[in-house]
């Protein structure tokens, strides 16, 4: 294996084409530098320099070898930099899982943007999942952070849950629905229509919040069709297949034929939670949570 120190000596002499000046740059005496270059030439099996008492020039082999030696040294320098960033928690990989409706929220996009700007050497992988599966994915390490709408089960201790508050629910209605002409709608009015939700077996935290809301108000839920994406739910609304209760951020999906109206119940909301492992949080996870904390303070 080539000695990086000898490659640096070679590069310096190649730049200076003078052993004396190169020795000064390297803070060496000239004889040791000459011996190191000779040793490198012996290892390579060819001469790097033609030397006379007056001049030093690169041989043809030396000229061809020079860019490769420079690339090795540049890569070694980059490796040292990346190693330092990894040790400091400013480089690496981070997997973020999220429920589909959360991707539309301002906090989601702002957090990703701010984190990417502050930590450009971190490869952030986004994984869309049902809220119910995010807990197990955090526990077994498939993802580092989860953004969920599902409250944890009582007694759960393996995942640390940070609540970012509730996001108001709004009614998504087909534009020809009579309720779309009202300034706001009540849950009782919505209960007369088929309700479009995520599939029952999907494990949606949004479904759980909506079902709790209907139970709290003693109202029946008329089941409608289901969609596995928030965009699919809105498409079904536009097709007149029913109504939907969605987080307020869904209004950014300005789909033709769909009207959003606020609910008369101000307590109707969807949870927004961040999940991390209770034990052994990495420096990158701590950095991400720091960005979230700053954004929340600014809001």
From TrEMBL:
<dbReference type="InterPro" id="IPR036388">
    <property type="entry name" value="WH-like_DNA-bd_sf"/>
</dbReference>
<dbReference type="Pfam" id="PF00126">
    <property type="entry name" value="HTH_1"/>
</dbReference>
<dbReference type="InterPro" id="IPR005119">
    <property type="entry name" value="LysR_subst-bd"/>
</dbReference>
<protein>
    <submittedName>
        <fullName>LysR family transcriptional regulator</fullName>
    </submittedName>
</protein>
<keyword id="KW-0238">DNA-binding</keyword>
<dbReference type="InterPro" id="IPR036390">
    <property type="entry name" value="WH_DNA-bd_sf"/>
</dbReference>
<comment type="similarity">
    <text>Belongs to the LysR transcriptional regulatory family.</text>
</comment>
<keyword id="KW-0804">Transcription</keyword>
<dbReference type="Pfam" id="PF03466">
    <property type="entry name" value="LysR_substrate"/>
</dbReference>
<dbReference type="InterPro" id="IPR000847">
    <property type="entry name" value="LysR_HTH_N"/>
</dbReference>
<keyword id="KW-0805">Transcription regulation</keyword>
<feature type="domain" description="HTH lysR-type">
    <location>
        <begin position="2"/>
        <end position="59"/>
    </location>
</feature>
